[in-house]
Specification:
By secondary structure, the chain is an alpha+beta fold. The chain is built from eleven helices and 14 strands.
């Protein structure tokens, strides 16, 4: 039976090794402030396996080390690969593939992915070079200005606090948010930045197309020791992350069961059949309401069983929907 790591299926031992190397690179890029011991625990491997993987990555051109002075993982070499023998249409297709993630995306894409697309776009002839990445990829695909993305990335790299002028959907005018940006990433059709909000006193996620302005503060910051980007988003059933999870159980009718069984919806899912032939779907999710919203997609073929508070909320939501359609 296959497992998923960062949304990629693992089937063979070779796949597991390859995907472990990918995960190590992603961990170092997205969560540099962790020790070797932290990495070993997260990956579930021995110290000897870790150093063997580190050697393999060095052979591929990716080298890193733990800096005691900076108290974080530091990339010392990241091999530059020339783009060779790509036709104009192939290069266009790769750039536009990133844009189309915004239409159906269900993946975590970090700033490195966006920067790679930008480099590909810069290699295209005019007029595509000037407008393709910012116009079609960022503005149309993600609804974000390049200036906003670049300023946030600069703050992340320089360890600066920023003031965001942020437009919340429920507010008439934008408000200021004092925060520390940790990451830029793509999830569920949009670009986000996540970090510690001094305004709300906690880890918060901000949708980047709602950011109207980014102002730098000279005061530096330290990433919280309890913050783990990978774990937070591994716990998300869809878009909403969290450090803790709650167990959710959904019962599916026989007519819906084949559609549920043929896909992996979350890495923690467990599927069984009860004595009446119904399918029982169980999952540990950071934001249980996302499971409820997903269950509504299947109409009367799905029933929330646990937790009890979510079952009651689902019933009340259905009653309100009935009133909208004038159903008693």
């Amino acid at each position: 039976m296959s497992r998923f790591v960062y949304g990629i299926s693992m089937k063979t031992e070779y796949d597991k090794r390859l995907l472990r190397l990918i995960r190590i690179m992603m961990e170092i890029r997205t969560i540099p402030r962790q020790t070797v011991a932290d990495m070993l625990k997260k990956l579930g491997i021995s110290k000897s396996q870790y150093y063997e993987d580190k050697k393999d990555l060095a052979g591929l051109g990716f080298e890193f080390e733990y800096s005691r002075n900076q108290q974080k993982m530091v990339v010392t070499k990241d091999r530059i690969l020339p783009v060779e023998n790509l036709t104009f249409s192939e290069q266009m297709a790769l750039v536009m593939a990133l844009r189309h993630l915004s239409a159906s995306g269900d993946h975590i894409l970090t700033y490195e992915g966006l920067r790679a697309a930008q480099k590909l776009a810069m290699g295209l002839p005019a007029p595509f070079r000037e407008s393709l990445f910012e116009g079609m990829v960022l503005n149309e695909g993600f609804g974000c200005r390049q200036e906003i993305m670049d300023r946030l990335q600069k703050a992340i790299e320089g360890k600066w606090r920023v003031i965001l002028l942020y437009q919340r959907p429920e507010q008439d005018s934008p408000s200021e948010e004092l925060m520390v940006p940790y990451h830029i990433f793509f999830k569920r059709r949009a670009l986000y930045t996540e970090g510690y909000s001094y305004t709300e006193e906690g880890i918060r996620t901000f949708r980047m197309n709602r950011i109207q302005e980014v102002r730098f503060e000279t005061q530096g910051f330290a990433v919280r020791t309890d913050y783990d980007f990978g774990t937070r988003y591994l716990n998300a059933f869809s878009a909403f992350p969290g450090d803790c999870t709650e167990h959710v159980k959904v019962r599916f009718a026989a007519k819906v069961s084949p559609f549920i069984k043929e896909s992996l919806w979350h890495h923690s899912q467990k599927i069984t059949e009860d004595k009446y032939g119904f399918l029982i779907f169980e999952v540990d999710a950071a934001y249980p309401r996302e499971v409820m919203w997903w269950a509504f997609f299947w109409g009367a073929g799905a029933e929330i069983l646990e937790p009890e508070w979510l079952r009651k909320e689902a019933a009340e939501t259905i009653r309100q929907m009935g009133r909208v359609y004038h159903i008693e």
